[in-house]
Predict the 3D structure of the following.
Amino acid sequence: MKGWATRPLGETCQIRPPKSEASRRLSDEEMVSFVPMEDMGVDQKHFIPTQSRPLNAVSGSYTFFADGDVLMAKITPCFENGKLGIATGLINGIGFGSSEYLVFRPTKVMDKEWLYYFLSRSDFRSEGAERMTGAVGHKRVPKEFIEAYPIPVPPLQEQGRIVGILDQAFDGIATAKANAEKNLRNARAIFASHLETTFTQGGQGWVEKRLSEVSKEFGRGKSRHRPRNDPDLYGGAYPFIQTGDISNADHWIRRYCQTYNEVGLSQSRLWPRGTICIAIVGATVGETGILDFDACFPDSVIGIVVNKTVANNEYIEYLLCANKMLMKEKGKGSARDNINMGTFEDQCFPFAPLRQQIEIVERINSLGRETKQLEAIYQKKITALDDLKKSLLDQAFTGNL
């Protein structure tokens, strides 16, 4: 690295400066900035504090820092996600925040922005994640690992030159990535808008029907009184899906979480391929999908086996997708998001004649394929920009910029 010195982080920074510094500079009643973990950004060099508190309200259990210090989350998953930033514009030059921050105060041989870029490297986060200790969900990067971690220390002028190159390059990358992400959102929005318009415009022969009127079977996934010798059960292992396996983004459900044998779920029934599944509880409430295989599912999922003489199952799945927000709104009001059976039993939906349903599905599928192609293009651009950023950081700290 062009003869650069390499030193442990603990020798180039003061790690976790003492709180006594704050009490020497300010009285107990004076205000300081307060930065909880949720206010710390990702890919944001200088974080902007938005909260303030009196010094005596935060000096006990929170982490101290000052203008120019570099903050980094040390707990999972915030560390792996890259929560990191340089303190600037603090009230009275002082801030306090989460006890899960590590604070770095560079010495005179280290530029704070050089340090920020070094800590933002994915390789550093990967190595730190491997060294984490503690209970699951509360793992932290050991201080000993941080203190001993080697960092290249070129002359300050060289650090500043490379930081300037990175700043300019990353500004361009950020703009290009924002444009790609906007185009990605726009592609999805166009598809969603077309979906909504399709089922609101109506036409000749359209009628309002309940789902039960177009279904051969319509109900929750689990029957609590189904006998063990029911012919609808397999004689061995079979797929079992849960609400997390259901997503409008895929239209068809092509994966499952696990398999159960007949003894393990003797009270569950087997639903055939083509069944429409609706998640009615939890994080994916309102999401829908069509089974691409025979499967069982719990009573947190509604199943619809469509009467194909009057309706098309893909038409109904798209129809439910277009009305997802309406259904979710009707399901609000309890501590946990859910949509009860009555909501679907009572709701009427617009149904075109069967032949027209099939034509509508073909048009939506065609637009969906075009949308997926655009999404793939924009996602590829985003990935390429992320890879470019990683490459530039690697070059910066190996003396190749």
